[in-house]
């Protein structure tokens, strides 16, 4: 009787222990590898016609998982995208509109906090860029602000630390170090977030000359004349022709290099710069030279990112973690690699709207699969909560990608996407705009400036987005339908009728005193 009693008493406890053990092993680890400004055109798995470089390790995720061809961001700049990843919300709800005066409110709910509360061990390593300190992480080791490429200072759980070496390698090393010492009784979330290939695109010294001075294919729209479109596209400040600086072109040596690094840097750049200076290039020749220099540097940065991805994937395999770890590779937005004569991002147009997304979930995702649905970085938070078996808060605005990853797109999956860019006029003079994106069309409204108008793009007829069809009578019906859809999305997503002034940032609009300066102390508006 006593034995039986003991057994009955112990049974629920035993069940609970077993269940906990089982649910812990069943809950997948999540490895989120995130780079900054990495264009999908610069991942070989995306098969860009220019064939700019090989990324064998990132491509391993396409081979063993799923590649998404239409992953979109709701606002194509760094901080706002990162805030969306954490919250699963648009910037008008998470409060982070721009990189100029926004600050992430660390008190708001994030998927990271929910994973941690449910027993995950959580860490973020690398670029953070949300002004306030990370919250919801057991461990954080981040770059201050944008960070620097060589010998970067970092902040480790609140303490300043100095690192020697190249930033991408350091972030990879720190990520591996954390994985090795983690609490193995818990599932983990690791956000390994690179600075690269952000401007000024400084490669690892071992990668200088990686392209052996072979010319990189130019985009068809390198010399876009911005005809057939409105003022906004003509009046930006992000061209290789006008905006590209001597620092961007590596015509000066960065101050953070030590003597040995400086030698390696100068050994590559000095003779090439001397040749460039002697050639005295102008006009299209100058743009072409800048494009080649830009591609050497930008793509060179990605080589170290790709190697880092390889080292982390190798570690997962060696440790037997491969089967129970979801691996996601993405970037905070897309980027222009000379298309339309541009670098940078911000626009609703394809190269900046779309971000690379590759995901591997063994047992769920069929290796080598490709998905063409409209997905978004809004969806990450819900996907990770879903993977961890946690409830998804009703106010999150994305959707779990789990069914898509499993090869089953729900019938009611989104057919349209709402976009809203705010930061203006500094730094790149891209006018605020919102719009709706479908598989074929983009309806865009530029607003709040002297250029207040609509545009319509038809990617089926005009894949490079070189022509505005808004006033073409043949599209009148499409315009009406798309405006309706935009209105519907604005209601569904709780977009405020008026955008608050601070959403556009600190820089003054033409004729406006700076919002950060008291009246009478006007700063010169910088273009
Ligand atoms: Ca970015």
Walk me through this protein's architecture.
The protein is α/β, with parallel strands linked by helices and 527 residues long. It folds into 2 domains: 2-203 and 298-408, Alkaline Phosphatase, subunit A (3-Layer(aba) Sandwich); 419-504, 2-Layer Sandwich (Arylsulfatase, C-terminal domain). Helix content is 31%, strand content 14%. It is built from 13 helices and 16 strands. The strands form 3 sheets. The protein has a 10-stranded mixed β-sheet with strand order 7-6-5-4-8-1-9-10-2-11, with helices on both faces. The chain has a 4-stranded antiparallel β-sheet with strand order 13-14-15-16, with helices on one face. Helix 2 (56-64) crosses helix 9, helix 5 runs parallel beside helix 11 and helix 6 packs parallel to helix 9. The longest helix is centred in the middle third of the chain and has 36 residues, at 283-318. It is globular. The N and C termini lie far apart (86 Å). Mean pLDDT is 94; it is low at 1-5, 7-24 and 518-527. Bound molecules: calcium ion (CA). Calcium ion binds next to loops.
Main traits of this protein?
single chain; 527 residues; alpha/beta; Alkaline Phosphatase, subunit A; Arylsulfatase, C-terminal domain; 2 domains; 10-stranded mixed beta sheet; 4-stranded antiparallel beta sheet; 31% helix; globular; disordered C terminus; binds calcium ion
List the helices and strands and how they pair.
Blueprint: H1 2-26, E1 29-35, H2 56-64, E2 66-68, E3 71-72, H3 78-87, H4 91-94, H5 111-117, E4 121-126, E5 139-142, E6 153-156, E7 159-162, H6 167-181, E8 188-193, H7 231-234, H8 259-279, H9 283-318, E9 325-331, H10 350-353, E10 357-360, E11 369-371, E12 375-376, H11 380-387, H12 402-405, E13 417-421, E14 433-437, E15 441-446, E16 453-458, H13 476-492
Parallel strand pairs: 1-8, 1-9, 2-11, 3-12, 4-5, 4-8
Antiparallel strand pairs: 2-10, 5-6, 6-7, 9-10, 13-14, 14-15, 15-16
Helix pairs in contact: 2-9, 5-11, 6-9
Bound molecules: calcium ion.
Calcium ion binds next to loops.
